[in-house]
Write a structure and sequence with these properties.
Blueprint (H helix, E strand, L loop, with lengths): L11 E8 L10 H17 L3 E7 L3 E8 L4 H20 L11 E5 L3 H11 L1 H4 L14 H5 L12 H4 L6 H10 L8 H4 L5 E2 L2 H11 L9 H8 L5 H11 L5 H15 L4 H7 L4 H17 L1 H17 L9
Length: about 325
């Protein structure tokens, strides 16, 4: 099985996540959490990493980081490895703790940072651990909005708050507005599971990776080599516009077809996004394809969907939520 591609350069932004083996707990008590944060803090002090958001959940963690000098892989191996050694010694255990390597997507700065930070801070809310978000002690949300003692003092908040002109109340309102939305993992929304950003950003990353290795040998590189795909949200909006007169059931089937035909999501990701079975995605795609062979109006509209997505690109026209 091929290893995930790592895109590293000085000044790069990443959303990083690591989960416990078989979803086992990775933080058993507050001392474990403090130990992990101390390791992150030391890297901040050394200038190796900038931590802009974090959230420590019972069996995984999320980070939004910037690498001033690059070398994300080096420093994440250091953090995860040192933490496991201390965890195993303290809890008298042996063996792996993390489920494979950490996941990391390269994130474009600007509005994509605020999207990642909101997703990170709403993790305890989605898990029904605590509500509101600032009551969860083991995230850096309070660094952004206040509301009690901070877990740490070294989190950098300026880059994300810049999207709100430094207005902490506006940022809080933005995060709170996300509670009622269906959560979509930033990792699912990333092109090829590697890149979260605009079409232009994806093109720049593709150029950086060109010639690195045979794209045919690495699925993520193969997807990037095909070019950027439309964002799932863009696909939904185009289907809604082109099939505005369709009923909910038909529109849902057409949306499943369009996501499989045009977005970068895999069938299992589409099924998860719409709370469907994997077989439902395949069935919807087959039914729409068969119907289009005998329905000229449907063929015309499907072509209109494809044309609109090709004109708009993967992210243009996406609302700044």
């Amino acid at each position: 099985m091929s290893r995930a591609v790592r895109v590293e350069h000085a000044g790069a932004w990443y959303h990083v996540m690591a989960r416990g083996v078989a979803r086992m707990p990775t933080f058993l008590d507050d001392e474990d959490r403090r130990a992990f944060l101390r390791k992150l803090g030391r890297l901040m002090d050394r200038g190796a990493l900038e931590i802009h958001s974090f959230c420590l959940m019972p069996n995984h963690y999320h980070l939004l980081v910037r690498t001033p000098r690059g070398e994300l892989a080096r420093w994440m191996r250091h953090v995860n490895g040192e933490y496991v050694r201390g965890f195993n010694y303290r809890h008298r255990r042996v063996g792996h703790l993390w489920q494979g390597r950490y996941k990391a997507i390269l994130v474009e700065d600007g509005r994509y940072l605020k999207e990642c930070s909101r997703y990170i801070y709403l993790n305890p809310n989605r898990a029904k651990i605590t509500r509101p978000a600032e009551r969860y002690f083991w995230s850096s949300y309070r660094n952004y909005v206040g509301g009690g003692p901070r877990a740490v003092a070294w989190v950098e908040t300026r880059a994300v708050l810049r999207e709100f002109e430094g207005d902490r109340k506006a940022y809080r309102a933005y995060v709170e507005a996300g509670k009622g939305e269906r959560p979509v993992s930033r990792f699912e929304g990333a092109v090829a599971g590697l890149v979260l950003g605009s079409e232009e950003f994806v093109v720049r990353v593709r150029r950086m990776l060109s010639g690195r290795q045979d794209p045919g040998e690495t699925p993520s590189l193969r997807i990037l080599a095909r070019g950027a795909r439309p964002a799932p949200e863009a696909v939904e909006r185009v289907v809604e516009k082109v099939f505005a007169d369709a009923g909910p059931a038909r529109k849902g089937r057409l949306t499943l077809w369009a996501q499989r035909a045009h977005s970068g999501l895999r069938p299992v990701e589409i099924a998860r996004r719409y709370s469907r079975r994997h077989s439902s995605v395949a069935m919807a795609h087959r039914e729409v394809e068969e119907e289009s062979r005998t329905d000229p109006d449907l063929r015309r509209r499907l072509a209109e969907v494809a044309h609109a997505l090709a004109q708009n690109g993967p992210d243009r026209g996406r609302k700044n939520d």
